[in-house]
Description:
Layout: H1 7-14, E1 22-26, H2 33-41, E2 46-51, H3 54-65, E3 73-77
Parallel strand pairs: 1-2, 2-3
Amino acid sequence: MEFMPSITEEHGLALLDSKFEKILSLGISTGGSAEIRMAEKCPDATVTATTIDERGLALTKDAIEQTQFEAGMRARNIKP
């Protein structure tokens, strides 16, 4: 599933350095698209995406499983 990135996502992604080792994304983007792009830009980093939305979490996990970056990505529910 392909989603259009927001201006905010584009600005954040532009600031990433390929040397980053850990990236924490507070609030999963639409379908995890930004987090997947983070993993593409920083292939050696561990990307952890968080959400309180169960459906968004499921969509993101499905999207991550379809990428080559699955080993370096985590999606977690932080709902209390």
